[in-house]
What does this fold into?
Amino acid sequence: MTVNIDNDVLKVCRCFNIKGEAVSQSVFTDGHINTTQLVVFNDGDEDKKYLIQGINTHVFKNPEELMENIVNVTSYLRKKIAENGGDPNRETLTFLKAENGKYFYFEGDKCWRAYNFIDSSHTCNKIENKVLFENAGRSFGNFQRYLTDYPMHTLNETIKNFHNTPVRFDNLEIAIEKNTAGRADSVKAETDFAMERRCETDRLLELYRKGLIPLRVTHNDTKLNNILFDDETNEGICVIDLDTIMPGFSLYDFGDAIRYGANTTKEDDENLDNVGVSLELFESYTEGFLSACAKALTMAEVENLAFSAKLMTLECGTRFLTDYLDGDVYFKTSYPEHNLVRARNQFRLVSEIEKHLDEMQEIVMNIYKKYI
Ligand code: ADP
Ligand code: GN1
Ligand code: MG
It folds into this structure.
């Protein structure tokens, strides 16, 4: 007998060779991009949990290349984790093959993948305990370290120019011009705010061109809810949401994590008085991150860690604003002004970071000294 799982999802599960009696289905609402459901099946002895994820093919146009990256990287990580005495089934994701022999499966125009659910773990959307954020920094720092020797040239670019901030600004300009949703006149203050900072958006690319910062294998979407924390120890056990693993700068990963996790409020709080950068949390994350990978970083990378938080926040705000102008076609939204609220929140955070940049810089250098 099957219970509590709708037929479409059940059919997808069977295509991934998930057997047993269907027990339950529930939805995760954390992410802005994919649709994620936990499904539970009983195989006669015990309940087994899986995640079934609808891949957003508007965002990820080539699921074949996307899954090739993810399966290759997770296979590589499995070996590294095992060599270090860890548990690969818990510390990285394990994807299921569908009956067509691939790691994704189309049902009509919907594209699905399936992977193991990691039990006794949780995600976090807002830091209550600064140790957790230090653990997050260590997890992303280790993730980067584990992938240092990964053959970067074999990775597909799943989203072109993902963290190319100047291109993101070009896209904002195009969106203003097109004015698809008829909203351009109402966001003059926000577009001016972004454009006043355009001259700073090329800084990391310029350092790269000068050979001062290297391309590395990076995660590129290091928000707090893309780490699973162990329920008992609160250690970061598994980095998830691997869709954007691509060659990038370590500064993208650092800056984006601060953007989300060190904000004194959530990303879509419309009360801008609540928005700020917590220097305490900034310090915690920096401690965790540098404890894991300080020795591998170049001086230019270290010197731009604080700046990267500003740049990634500015870029993200610009992306939310662009999507608002385009009529909300990229990020999931819950109400019509959602992307605008997010953009305003991010731009306020940029202003707050600007006020505290010198202090952030000092925090970085003090921690860095301990690890070299
Ligand atoms: P999105 O691209 O939409 O952000 P994610 O891959 O981050 O999708 O998944 C959305 C949410 O599902 C995560 O933030 C997390 O709460 C939960 N989740 C994803 N993978 C796992 C897993 N293997 N075990 C437990 N929870 C998970
Ligand atoms: C999206 O998928 P999710 O929710 O972890 C987005 C990130 C943004 C973030 C803003 C593939 O992340 O780039 O920074 O929303 N992911 C993609 O919260 O665009
Ligand atoms: Mg996510």
Observations:
- The chain has two domains: 7-119, 130-371.
- Residues 31, 225-226, 241 surround magnesium ion (ligand 3) (CB under 6 Å).
- The domain at 130-371 is CATH 3.90.1200.10 (Aminoglycoside 3'-phosphotransferase; Chain: A, domain 2).
